[in-house]
Specification:
six-stranded mixed β-sheet, globular, homodimer, 14% strand
């Protein structure tokens, strides 16, 4: 293993993740690790699946948001919190704030899926919308923070958020210490950073591979260049992962610990959602299905011929399930109508 | 509580369920107990949900089938096993047999959903089909058993199967000892019998209510008459619960321990499936959603005015998720197109 100077500098450490786990015990759902002979056979690999779509608020984001808030002072909580999000962090922040008695304001894109907006609404947060293409959401947040004296809770760019998210890997390794590789979605990079830091601190032989949507590969490019490489993120059905650049506090951790980043196309994401429905009985949003999609598309290289069985046990983080029926229904129906070739399906 | 002569006569006891749990540890998925503020608010009750759709083979049936097989002699296992099922018991039996090295033959209705048939096939069982309306499946099973020397593994009518299924209630009460009522689907009655026997042996103050599809209320009628009251089961989207009579070994247990049986219509089942998708991110087959449907339809009486908040904490067993996309997609799409009044939804 390489020297650990960078990660200790950021504070995203194995012990930080362990402390977060202790603070989150009894608050988060200990999501199940699912297996399915049918899914493993369809994918051509031995899979264990961490179903974070079953987490409170439907995504892993609650772990980081609650952990960050739980470390604020009573005075900060009383003044209130603000955060920006494509939806899942907003829901997570709204619930965490409700549980800890803090007023919450969330900044969401105007095109947020209805199911996410309704859920935020129910949790009593103030909602402020911004235009994804013309406004900088961080500026909107900064202005609200300055104006109303609110504490900013980043969706990824916070050590407390990242180590909170890293508890996903901690639980996965407790339940399946024999995995060889863990696949994790990459948006801002907080989940990947928290998971990779924990995995390498405790199970250094386990590979950690990030997955981004094709055309939204800011982290892949940054990893290759070894410094932040912002892009104009392309369109993708994985709305939660359309980021322009890795979170600054996540990047050094990712550079240090992530073994690789791969990208996948939307059709593989849809196929992964369909397999989640069929074999796991879970609802996955596109961003939540992307790690499984990487196994279907061949993005994660097999040890031998592409399309053959992948060596080793794969831990797959399915990160969220907040998707409108209109979106889910039309994606899966189209996939069935097309009768898509089942990629990488032996026999 | 009434005398316990009947249940000890059948052997479906609290300690039987505990022994089954010990035997199933590490083999079955410890399915999560899910909560959702959005779902509780939509239903107007404080809910905890046992998500058995996430069980191995997609339904609770694996608990009973594996437990039954695990108690057969090596000689019986070597000769092989046979069972009949609308699909979920067949999958469960096929996997349990595979794990324990026994050849399996499963007898399924000719109209079995494709997703269930494909799953049985993958598990290597021999499949024999029968016509639901013209053939007696028990006779088909008996003939195969006689002809090939196979051990019959009933889907409900077995003490080992019932106490295996009762581990659902054991886990639910371990995770939520404060529930006031448990709602459980009723087909052959094995799940309800195992759960009710365990609940009343250990938490006698907790109510256990069975739920049947409207027109398939053989158990409700039998409970009212205090003896088996066979019917010609009507059509229902809950294909797993279309039984003509309670299993003979389940009936005395149900008569003794079940507090009530209620029935629900298909539209409430569809609504429950939609709420499972939206709030819990789980896929429910119609039979698997019926216990939640009973809360939506008003079948389970509120303490005060219908439509108001139900008192107490409700434990809801969502028993399975094996449903074809064609069925699921069309049911939920029609529900969205109709813009159904959300029954019992406050505010």
């Amino acid at each position: 293993m390489r020297a650990t100077a960078e990660h200790t500098a950021t504070g995203v450490t194995g012990s930080g993740v362990r402390q977060a786990a202790a603070r989150l015990a009894g608050v988060v759902v200990r999501t199940p690790l699912l297996t399915s002979a049918g899914l493993s056979s369809a994918v051509g690999a031995d899979l264990v699946v961490k179903a974070e779509c079953l987490q409170v608020t439907g995504a892993f984001k609650f772990r980081g948001a609650y952990h960050h808030l739980s470390r604020l002072s009573p005075e900060d909580l009383a003044r209130g919190v603000v955060g920006a999000s494509s939806g899942n962090h907003a829901q997570a922040l709204a619930l965490a704030a409700q549980l800890l008695g803090a007023p919450a304001t969330v900044v969401v894109p105007a095109d947020i899926p209805e199911v996410k907006l309704a859920a935020i609404d129910r949790l009593g947060a103030d909602v402020v919308t911004y235009e994804r293409d013309s406004q900088d959401r961080d500026q909107v947040v900064a202005a609200l923070s300055a104006e109303r004296g609110l504490c900013v809770v980043p969706s990824a760019n916070s050590v407390a958020v990242m180590v909170g998210a890293g508890t996903v890997a901690l639980e996965l390794l407790q339940d399946a210490p024999d995995v060889d590789t863990i696949l994790v979605p990459v948006g801002g990079g907080g989940l990947a950073a928290g998971c990779a830091a924990f995995v390498k601190a405790t199970h250094p032989r386990v590979r950690v591979i990030g997955v981004e949507p094709y055309g939204c590969n800011d982290t892949q490019l940054s990893l290759h260049a070894k410094h932040s490489t912002p892009i104009a993120a392309a369109s993708s059905i994985a709305d939660g992962l359309r980021h322009n650049a890795p979170a600054p506090l996540a990047l050094p951790v990712l550079l240090h610990y992530l073994d690789d980043v791969v990208t996948v196309h939307d059709d593989a994401i849809t196929e992964a959602m369909a397999l989640g429905f069929e074999h796991l009985k879970v609802v996955l949003e596109p961003s939540g299905a992307i790690a499984l999609a990487a196994l279907l598309s061949g993005a994660v290289a097999a040890s031998s011929t592409p399309g053959t069985h992948l060596d080793g046990r794969m831990g797959v983080v399915l990160s969220g399930g907040n998707v409108d029926w209109a979106t889910f229904g039309s994606l899966i129906t189209r996939r069935h109508e097309r009768g898509l070739p089942r990629l990488h399906r032996p026999g």
